[in-house]
Amino acid sequence: MDRREFLGSSIAAAGGVVLGRSARAADEAMRAPVPISSAEGMANKVEGARFPDGFLWGMATASYQVEGAWNEGGKGESIWDRYAHGVGHVKGGDTGDVACDHYHLYRQDITLLKRLNQKSYRFSISWARIQPTGPGAPNQKGLDHYKRVMDAALEAGIRPFCTMYHWDLPQWAEDRGGWPNRDLAGYFAGYAGILARELGDRITVWAAFNMPWAFTYYGYGIGIHPPSRAKFSDFLKALHTVALAQGESFRALKAGSSKATVGSAYSMAPGYPKTDSEADLAATARYHAMNNTFFLHAALKGEYPKAFAGEPPYEQMGVRAGDDKIMRAPLDWVGFHYYTRRVVSDAGGAKAGGLHYGTEIEADTGDTNGRDPYTRFHAVMPTEGPLTHAGLEIWPRGVYDLVMQISREYDHPVIELTECGCCYMDTPYEKEGGRVPDERRTAFFKGILAELARAIDDGAKVRAFHAWSLMDNFEWTDGYSQRYGLTYVDFRDQKRTVKDSGLWYGRVAGTNRLEA
Ligand code: FCB
Hints:
Layout lengths: L2 H13 L5 H4 L14 H10 L7 E5 L2 H4 L12 H7 L16 H14 L4 E5 L2 H4 L9 H16 L3 E7 L5 H5 L7 H17 L5 E6 L1 H10 L10 H25 L4 E8 L2 E3 L4 H15 L1 H8 L12 H4 L5 H5 L6 E5 L3 E5 L30 E4 L16 H13 L5 E5 L19 H19 L4 E7 L18 E4 L4 E4 L1 H12 L5
Parallel strand pairs: 1-2, 1-11, 2-3, 3-4, 4-5, 5-7, 6-8, 7-10, 10-11
Antiparallel strand pairs: 8-9, 12-13
The site of beta-D-fucopyranose has 10 residues, from loops.
């Protein structure tokens, strides 16, 4: 497929023309208005798309992926420092030791955000900068660093959106048992209280966790991220500790800062049943509950959604009487990412299908060694739409379905899209004055934003969209071999070059329309 054909098929996928029987058979909640049925229709949709006044256009980063300065300013070691320094974990032996050097270059990066008309900067705080060696007294240098960053954002007229935890657990907390240890809920609430008291005059928008389902599953369930444990029972315990920590930190933030509004940054990917059989419909509902709404439901309802084939394995999770009250937190708004979708089927009988999730193309191994007898679904990323360089299917229609489904299920909450983006490896092109002509990324955002505008037109209360990412950065176990940035980073000299997609996105942010 050449680039032109790619753009055509990308637009077709945006319109949902290739929506198969399976997707049409989606549960009632997935019933959606008639799909746009031609590339021309989609182009019209892009041209016609308008976003409300005051819509918060933003970009996102995460501490370990951009900051560098891994051992400066009194920072302690995190599990990602330990892991990346180990042999055989990250492609190319890459580490986040320097990353984008955002720790030192934050001023110029915030100036860039301003130049691109951004209204919201979603960043994360490194817990190990605030509490380097254990719970208790904070490291003043760490707090001062984030105060400076926040002041720069506020001076630029940009709303700071703080994620308190984007995967870089302090090593001391892992040494005390990590997320399967219930004590971490209390440690995390202590950390949240410090942040609220120290930074709560500057930050009013807080999310506790980035993708809680993913870091518990990757880190403890299958061991492909630090701390590399692969024990399903640890994953179940970690899920519960994180749900408790979410509730506890909500209260700590509110107690520490009267201005705090608290939400979330969940990973979500809409699930479409593979067939319209009862079994696949039920499996899709379990998938949705496990992958998408597990923590949201825990917070808003004080109970777990029906993610398991039977009763939740409360005992294995370590649930105690009264935990429902700890988990419950009336979030002020709901945040989630959108990257791609899943087609879901029932795993059948006792031999369970694995939960698969990732930036890789998922495959059903068909053999999970009895790891997951609870959820019993197969969730597979289809490949009907075009793939990014990370191998993720592009399915713009999914954002519409997901936003509408969450709106319906949770009584029309205020929604923030916390991440959305794509990996393409385009580089500066000398013959065009060093520009980065990454038109596939622009096409990706056009398709998705047109669908998002449609959801807003249909009543969804979406107030913000954050592109992942402000700049190319350390992409976890893929190191620097994947580029998600709207700004190109030359990691040899830290030179930033805004890509064509970034310039386009800046115009969108300035005009609230896609044909910018
Ligand atoms: C999300 C993560 C983010 C980044 C993007 C590509 O799952 O939250 O840190 O790695 O994927």
